[in-house]
Amino acid sequence: MMVAMMMVVAAAAVGWGWWLSFWKPSQLLYACTRQGICGFTLSPLQSVDCAEGRSWILLNSIQRHGKMFYVKLGKVVSLVVLDPLSVQQLLTQNADCYAKGLFVRALGILGNGVFSSSGSEWMDQRQLLGHCFFMRELKDHFETIQEAAKNHVECWSALATEVVDVHKLFLELTVGLICEIAIGESIEKKIAIMIFERFNSYLNKYRQRVCSPFYSFFGYRWKSQYIMEDEKHLLTTIKELVCKREQTLNSRSSKEGLAIDLLIERAQGKENSNPSLVIDNTSTLILAGHETTANLLTWTVYLLGTHLNWQEEARSEAQGIIELDMKNMSQLKILGMILWESLRLYPPQPIIARRCMRENTVSDIIIPKGLEVIIPVSAMHRNKDVWGQDSEEFKPGRFANGINKACKVPSSFLPFGSGPRTCIGQTLALLEAKVTLYHMLKNYSWEISPGYQHCPDVTLTLQPLFGMPIILVRQ
Ligand code: HEM
C-alpha cells in the first residue's frame, strides 16, 4: 500500500515537473509562432553573462526579427516588444493583466513592497506612498538635498587632479539622501557604502541566475548561501533604521509625513495588513531610490566629460544663478535638456519586464497567460525611425521644446516607465540630479580618465561595469 502511494506521488511529481518544464513552455512558444512571431532559443552556451554579449544578442535579434520576437531560455519564454504603440498599450490600457517580471519577483529583498507586488496589494501601497514624492512634499526636503549635495561635492576638492571613481561618490550621496528623505535618518558614510556595495553584489548574483537556463528549471527564488549573506546584512541594517524610527515616532510632536511614518502608522493601525509592509517598502525605497539616481548622475558626468562644449554651456548657466532655490531651479534649462538626453542614451532602468497574468490582446497579438514580456527601453531610446538618424549621438538640443517635440512618437521615451506603475520617485531623482550637478559644475571642470573602459552593464539598472574614473579640476 505504502509503495503504491509513493509511486503515485512520484508519478504526480514527474508529471507536474514535465508539465511545468516542457509542456507549458512549448504551449507558450506555439502561441507565439502560430501568430507569426519569430524568435530563438538561447542555448546554455549562448546564455552569456557579460554586457557586450547581451547587447550583441539583443541588437542582432532586433535586426533579424523586428519589433516583436520571442526568446526562450530554459523553461522561460519571453516576448520582446519594441513597438512604441504596443508598449504603451501593454503598460497602460492593459496594465492590470500584468505583474512584474521574473527578475523583480525573484529579488526576495523587495518582498511584497510597492515595486514588486501586484493587484489590490500594490494599489493600496501605491496610494499610501505615491504622494510622499510629489513636488509639493519635496519642497520641504529641498534644503536637505541642497546641503547634502553641496557638502558632498565640496569635500571632493581634496581629490582634485587625482583620478576618482565618481560613480562610487554618487552612490554614497544618493543612499544617504534617500535614507534621510524616506526614513528621516541620516546615516554614517560606512553604512551608506555597505548598503550600496552589498546591494550591488546581491543584484549581480541574481543577474547570473536569470541569465542561466539551469536556474529556470530549479527556480530563481532558491537562495545560495552567498545571496542569503547579502540579504541578511542588508535586512539587518534596514531593520535597525526602521526600529530607530519606530521608537521615536510616537514621541514626536509634529508629523513630518515621511514615507516611513505613513508605513508604520498603517502597519500599527490596520488589521490584516501585510506584516512585512514596513520592511518591504523601506528596502524598496532605499534600493529603488539610490542606484538609479546615482546612475543618472554618473552617465551625465560621462556625457559632459566627453562633450566639453555642453559642459561649458551648462557651467555658464549654473554660474548665472548665485544661490539655488526651489524658485530659480526652472532657470536650469540647459541642464534639464542634458538630463533628458542622458536618460535617453543611458536609461538607468534599461529594461521593463512583466509577466502576463491574464490573456489579453496587444496590437492584434494575443498575449497568453504565463508569457514574460520584455521592453528594452535602451533600444527604444536609440531607434532611428523614432529619434532620427542621429539617435546614437548626444544632442541635448532635441529636448529644447520638451519631450513631445523631441521625437516622432513621444511614448517611445520611457526612462521612468509609463502607466499606473510609473516611477514614484522621478521628481525626487531629477531634483537630486539637478542640485548635485549645479554644485559640481560651479566647483569643478572634469575630464574622463584615459584609463576609463566604456562598458554599460545591465543588472536591474544600467551601470558602468568598471566605474567612472574622472579627473576633477577645481574652478
Ligand atoms: C533616475 C532615477 C530613476 C529612474 C530612471 C527610475 C526608473 C523607474 C522605472 C522605469 C520604473 C517603472 C518600473 C516598471 O514599470 O516595471 C520605476 C518604478 C519605481 N520607482 Fe523609480 N526610478 C528612479 C528613481 C527613483 C527614486 C529616487 C525612487 C524613490 C522614491 C524610486 C522609486 C520607485 C518605485 C517605488 C517604483 C515602483 C512603482 C510602482 O510599481 O508602483 N525611483 N522607476
List the helices and strands and how they pair.
Elements: H1 2-33, E1 39-42, H2 51-65, E2 68-73, E3 76-81, H3 84-91, E4 98-100, H4 102-106, H5 119-129, H6 135-138, H7 142-155, E5 163-165, H8 166-183, H9 189-210, H10 213-218, H11 225-249, H12 259-269, H13 277-306, H14 308-319, H15 333-345, E6 351-356, E7 360-362, E8 365-367, E9 372-376, H16 377-381, H17 384-387, H18 426-443, E10 444-448, E11 456-458, E12 462-464, E13 469-474
Helix pairs in contact: 7-8, 7-18, 8-9, 8-13, 9-11, 11-13, 12-13, 13-15, 13-18, 14-15, 14-18
Architecture overview:
This protein is α+β, with helices and mostly antiparallel strands and 475 residues long. It has helices at 2-33, 51-65, 84-91, 102-106, 119-129, 135-138, 142-155, 166-183, 189-210, 213-218, 225-249, 259-269, 277-306, 308-319, 333-345, 377-381, 384-387, 426-443; strands spanning 39-42, 68-73, 76-81, 98-100, 163-165, 351-356, 360-362, 365-367, 372-376, 444-448, 456-458, 462-464, 469-474. The protein has a six-stranded mixed beta sheet, with helices on both faces. Strands 5-13-10 form a three-stranded antiparallel beta sheet. Helix 2 (51-65) links the parallel strand 1 and strand 2 (68-73). The radius of gyration is 23 Å and the shape is globular. The model has no long low-confidence stretch (mean pLDDT 89). Protoporphyrin IX containing FE binds at residues 100, 114-115, 126, 133, 284-285, 288-289, 292-293, 296, 348-349, 352, 415-417, 421, 423-425, 428-429. GO terms for molecular function: heme binding; iron ion binding; monooxygenase activity; oxidoreductase activity, acting on paired donors, with incorporation or reduction of molecular oxygen. It comes from Adiantum capillus-veneris (Maidenhair fern).
